[in-house]
Design a protein that fits this description.
Length: 203
Amino acid sequence: MPRTLEGQITMEKTPSYFVTKEAPRRIHSMSRDTKLIVVVRNPVTRAISDYTQTLSKNPSIPSFQALAFKNLSTGLIDTSWSAVRIGIYAKHLDNWLQYFPLSKFLFVSGERLVSDPAGEMGRVQDFLGLQRVVTDKHFYFNETKGFPCLKKPEGGSKPRCLGKSKGRPHPKIDGQVVQRLREFYRPFNMKFYQMTGQDFGWD
């Protein structure tokens, strides 16, 4: 990490930190004052999105349900598959809470980032102790992508939207497969809501 001068905030984003066992200890030994922002979304949608991304790079991979289940007839979920494992947020948070108190975390809803980007960005700015500069006037909804885009300052270049890998259509997944995954995640989601004091409304 670069040195941070008085009045500066240094940010680094790597999604895999949240699910990497060694990350909390390493970050804590670097700086116990680190503030942690975790963006989460419905773990079922997240798993399908992860699969969609892998599928775009490797069209010959097995079907979603073949990877998600150890045994389809018994409905046994394969938690060794990373697309499924990542969404067990309560388990990962448990690991982090051994090193950082809950007050060092801000949990951002991926769904609300889409439906109310200014609201979620307001929470981020408050958490970081920043003046609220980014507001709803900085966003517009891009119908084609299904995501909000960031407007550039007046006289700036064209608006900044998420890259082409974002907002692509998901493959059709059997309804029973989705339902079984919802049931699998429900107790973990409830525990996560309890741990964070936030109901993300996934159930």
